[in-house]
């Protein structure tokens, strides 16, 4: 009503007060935005450092006689969908492949057959596509311990 009848008074009392508040609010919002940007940049830096410091472990585990399986762990840090990767390995290498939980309650990929080198090449290629080139991939051979026979009495 005031703005229709007395537009000069309305501008004097209402518009000026709103603009000064909005400038203060604008400055506060800009400060908050800068803080958020700094926080997000630090978070991204921490995540990148975590990715670069972690490593992927490929274990070649000997089963019975000449049979082997390959267990791949440490992929969850790199935001790789482990189930999709398991399916890809299964079709690419024409072998059985599954996702299992390890002792630390993290997902591992278990592949039937001695395919450690091929898996390493494929994982390195996958990480290179994501822009991560300095990731350590470590291969470990785990041999089955032979049972010692007890001496006959």
Report what the structure shows.
This is Translation machinery-associated protein 22. One of its GO terms (molecular function) is mRNA binding. Interacts with the 40S ribosomal subunit. The protein is of the alpha+beta class and 153 residues long. The protein folds into two domains: 2-51; 55-142, SUI1-like domain (Translation Initiation Factor Eif1). Helices cover 50% and strands 21% of the residues. Strands 3-4-2-1-5 form a five-stranded mixed beta sheet. The radius of gyration is 30 Å and the shape is rod-shaped. The mean pLDDT is 79.
Structure summary:
With 153 residues, the chain is an alpha+beta fold.
Jot down its keywords.
2 domains; Translation Initiation Factor Eif1; alpha+beta; five-stranded mixed beta sheet; 21% strand
Q: In which range does the helix fraction lie? A: 40-55%
* CATH architectural name of the largest domain: 2-Layer Sandwich
The run of helices and strands is: HHEEHEEHE
So, the CATH homologous superfamily of the largest domain?
SUI1-like domain
Largest sheet: 5 strands, mixed
How would you describe the shape? Answer: rod-shaped
Query: What's the rounded overall pLDDT mean?
Result: 79
Note the gap between the termini. Answer: 112 Å
Radius of gyration from CA coordinates: 30 Å
Number of strands: 5
Instruction: Tell me the strand percentage band.
Output: 15-25%
Strand order of the largest sheet: 3-4-2-1-5
Please count the helical segments: 4
GO molecular function, one term: translation initiation factor activity
Keywords: Cytoplasm, Ribonucleoprotein, Ribosomal protein
Subunit structure: Interacts with the 40S ribosomal subunit.
Subcellular location: Cytoplasm
């Amino acid at each position: 009503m005031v703005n229709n009848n007395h537009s000069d008074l309305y501008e004097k009392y209402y518009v000026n007060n709103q603009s000064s508040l909005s400038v203060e609010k604008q400055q506060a919002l800009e400060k908050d935005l800068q803080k958020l940007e700094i926080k997000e940049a630090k978070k991204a830096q921490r995540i990148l450092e975590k990715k670069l410091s972690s490593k992927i472990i490929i274990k070649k585990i000997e089963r019975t006689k000449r049979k082997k399986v390959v267990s791949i762990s440490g992929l969850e840090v790199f935001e790789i969908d482990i189930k999709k990767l398991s399916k890809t390995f299964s079709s690419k290498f024409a072998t059985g492949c599954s996702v299992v939980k390890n002792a630390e309650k993290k997902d591992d990929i278990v592949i039937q057959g001695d395919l450690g080198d091929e898996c390493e090449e494929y994982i390195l290629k996958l990480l290179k596509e994501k822009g991560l080139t300095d990731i350590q991939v470590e291969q470990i051979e785990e041999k089955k311990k032979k049972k010692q026979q007890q001496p006959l009495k």
